[in-house]
């Protein structure tokens, strides 16, 4: 019965969601990355990040989108790398990116100047940075270059829901060989609804036809085959977002019950930057920043990553029960 459900999700994926042409190349890259780092003694985390775009026309003019900025995923990638992980960063095109995320609101051209020599500016080869406009730029640049040199971050982009689904499946299969050393940190805000290719108009929907009524199908729950079939030994974390706090923990527990993975990070839209609950089958741990910590620039992702990396260690090396000899 369970097997039939899994294969029907797989079938649906192949039939109703266009397969990106580069998926096999990306899968090979991810598998090589995972194997190389595992052999070097590192664990590997696959982070999904950002929202998804659901097209309304196949020659897409309009689409449905959501709020996610990708900040959770980008910040978490940095803390995982700091904790010794290698990171596959499966992110929405143009959502926030590790390290550069800190400078996104700054106009680069305002932060750069030609160097002034002999009272004259203008040697085009000498450009200097105004470090007041780019706070921490030296520290962040150093970190970024170390990460690049160590090959610790593998960025993979998606745009549409179809790309996200196929690339996540490919990632899960690519990480299968490293077993429990793999963590899945599914922070992307993925649409629950879509229009199947067979029902999508090819051309731009005409407003002259009057008001538009949309009927959307349910997106298959791919957490199910991911946990049971594609990467059954991995440590899997999903995220649950609600706007109504009173139903949040119940929904998180239900997800754990349904998919049988290791933890759900539960958060409410408005308070997500300062407060989450990490829900496992045995525990509910609230992580919350104080006002003072927020002022100091502490980020909740540091706490989330610290909690989950410890749990991952226990997952990989379960403490064996030593009974006293009689
Ligand atoms: C989350 O709950 C993430 O924490 C956020 C992060 C998307 C809220 P930002 O990108 O926000 O930093 O702006 N992600 C999962 C949200 C989600 O759609 N989950 C689904 C659900 O709740 C299923 S996994 O049903």
Automatic annotation (TrEMBL):
GO biological processes: coenzyme A biosynthetic process
Catalytic activity: (R)-4'-phosphopantothenate + L-cysteine + ATP = N-[(R)-4-phosphopantothenoyl]-L-cysteine + AMP + diphosphate + H(+); (R)-4'-phosphopantothenate + L-cysteine + CTP = N-[(R)-4-phosphopantothenoyl]-L-cysteine + CMP + diphosphate + H(+)
GO molecular function: phosphopantothenate--cysteine ligase activity
Name of a matching Pfam family: DFP
Tree of life domain: Eukaryota
Enzyme Commission number, as recorded: 6.3.2.51
Location of the DNA/pantothenate metabolism flavoprotein C-terminal domain: 43-96, 178-275
Similarity-based family: Belongs to the PPC synthetase family.
Functional description taken from the UniProt entry: Catalyzes the second step in the biosynthesis of coenzyme A from vitamin B5, where cysteine is conjugated to 4'-phosphopantothenate to form 4-phosphopantothenoylcysteine. Has a preference for ATP over CTP as a cosubstrate.
Protein's name according to its UniProt entry: Phosphopantothenate--cysteine ligase
């Amino acid at each position: 019965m369970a097997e039939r459900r899994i294969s029907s999700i797989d079938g649906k994926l192949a039939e109703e969601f266009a397969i990106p042409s580069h998926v096999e190349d990306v899968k090979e890259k991810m598998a090589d990355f995972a194997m190389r780092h595992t052999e070097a003694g590192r664990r590997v985390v696959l982070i999904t990040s950002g929202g998804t775009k659901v097209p309304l026309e196949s020659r897409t003019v309009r689409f449905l989108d959501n709020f996610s900025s990708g900040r959770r995923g980008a910040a978490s990638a940095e803390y995982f790398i700091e904790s010794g992980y290698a990171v596959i960063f499966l992110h929405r095109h143009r959502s926030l990116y590790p390290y550069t995320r800190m400078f996104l609101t700054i106009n680069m051209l305002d932060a750069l100047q030609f160097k002034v020599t002999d009272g004259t500016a203008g040697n085009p080869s000498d450009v200097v940075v105004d470090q007041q406009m780019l706070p921490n730029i030296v520290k962040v640049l150093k970190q970024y270059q170390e990460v690049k040199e160590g090959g610790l971050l593998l960025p993979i982009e998606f745009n549409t829901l179809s790309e996200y689904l196929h690339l996540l499946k490919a990632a899960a299969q690519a990480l299968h060989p490293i077993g429990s050393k793999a963590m899945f940190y599914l922070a992307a805000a993925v649409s629950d609804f879509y229009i199947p290719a067979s029902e999508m108009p090819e051309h731009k929907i005409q407003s002259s036809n009057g008001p538009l009524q949309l009927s959307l199908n349910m997106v298959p729950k791919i957490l199910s085959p991911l946990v049971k079939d594609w990467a059954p030994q991995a440590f899997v974390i999903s995220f649950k977002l609600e706007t109504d706090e009173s139903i949040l923990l119940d929904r998180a527990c239900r997800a754990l019950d349904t998919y049988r993975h290791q933890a759900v990070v539960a958060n409410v839209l408005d308070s997500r930057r300062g407060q989450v609950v990490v829900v496992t089958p045995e525990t509910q741990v609230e992580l919350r920043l104080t006002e003072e910590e927020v002022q100091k620039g502490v980020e909740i992702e540091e706490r989330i990553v610290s909690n989950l990396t410890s749990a991952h260690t226990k997952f990989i090396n379960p403490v064996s029960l030593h009974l006293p000899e009689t």
